[in-house]
Amino acid sequence: MKTDFIRKLLDLPTDAWINDELAYKGGPAVIPEDVRKTNFPIITKEDVMQMLISIQQDADSVIDEFTEKYRQYVGANYAVATASGTSSLHLALVGAGVEPGDEVILPAFTFIATAQAVVAAKAIPIFVDIDPQTYCLDPNQVEKAITKKTKAIMPVHVHGLPADLTRLRLLSNKHSLRLVEDASHAHSASLHNQVCGSIGDSAGQSLMADKNFPVGGEGGIAFFKEQKDYLRALAFLEDSGIDYRMSWIAAAFGISQLDRLPYYDAIRARNAAYLTNALSETRLFSGPTVPEGSKHSYNMYRIKLSPEKVGLGDLDDFKVKEAIQELVMSEGVFAREWQNVPIPGHLPFKNRKGFGNGYPFSLSEREDFGYEIENFPETLNMLRSTLTICRELRSPIEYERIQAYALVFKKIDANPQIIREIVEKNKNLTVLYERDARLG
């Protein structure tokens, strides 16, 4: 029987590692290759016992039990467990009253499922740029994008940081719009002590196995504030015949995992705080901005790069980023882009074929949908100048591992000349959003 269990200890970190030669140059990696794997979700005897209990119950009762427990945890008024995050977003939009031909405003930086859910609701996604500090939907850009066809604003709590729902609620009220949250990264995240998913008129959230709160495989949940929206969503499922039901196996796993979610949240918060503090001691790196009143859930951890602070300001920022990514990876920390092209630059929105014959885009009177990526300069700048740590901080990793991660960045910060060397070697590198669009 194979196991993911790591049978080798990571050496206790020491600041002396900063002075070692970079692994890129043949020195010892901070995290050796055979101890780099992190495991999540963690399967325990509680999960096994819950599965044994649930298998003896009616499937619908298991799903109902999960739905009710998680609804109470979030503080939403109504909830429907679904088969995926995308289906939950679709249901949240339909429940909020989004109809064919309506426009829904959403950020240019998100996962493609946010926009696909809008199309699934037969509505038109209208993308706007992000706030350069939080990387969430910029309320200043939202108001400029509102038209007579706008039906909803759909902010995304990117990486687990709540979007500015206070200002977006004021905008939605001012223009009589619905506010639909994409909370797929925001399990346990909150704004002024109110949990994401319970703040807007409705919300969708992914619960897939790679999220902070995983169920058994694929899954999602839609939340609703008002009963009429909840009933509209249920009526849609009944009338359309679409089967968005969550698997009882996923629900059973979610029941037992929910008990450990506060522990996972605490570990992530501790590790993120440690890393942010360590990065503040470097010149080249800085951690995420978290506005007052916001609780970040750190589904991902995005690192800002400042090449000019180490004498690399004359180099192309995207080339510096890729050089740093190569160095970070060689030291044992898996850092990646998480998107390389704004979502409106992906083929489904460049081509606008939709369900066929351009539907639902054909319902719009627009000649210009504003999908050219040059319309989103803050998103492009962010893509050029940041890196993301994903799964590695999501796992309940050991304290010595987060210390090792911090030392990786300090080690690279001490060697800017190697970054310059790599950039000069890769002179013909093209900017990342001019390459084929990638997800994840």
Automatic annotation (TrEMBL):
GO molecular-function terms, A-Z: pyridoxal phosphate binding; transaminase activity
Keywords carried by this UniProt record: Aminotransferase, Pyridoxal phosphate, Transferase
Family annotation (InterPro entries): DegT/StrS_aminotransferase, PyrdxlP-dep_Trfase, PyrdxlP-dep_Trfase_major, PyrdxlP-dep_Trfase_small
GO BP annotations listed: polysaccharide biosynthetic process
UniProt key word Transferase: yes
Keyword Iron-sulfur tagged: no
Protein family membership: Belongs to the DegT/DnrJ/EryC1 family.
PANTHER family, A to Z: DTDP-4-AMINO-4,6-DIDEOXYGALACTOSE TRANSAMINASE (PTHR30244:SF34), TRANSAMINASE (PTHR30244)
Name of the protein described by the UniProt record: DegT/DnrJ/EryC1/StrS family aminotransferase
Species assigned in the record: Paenibacillus sp. SYP-B3998
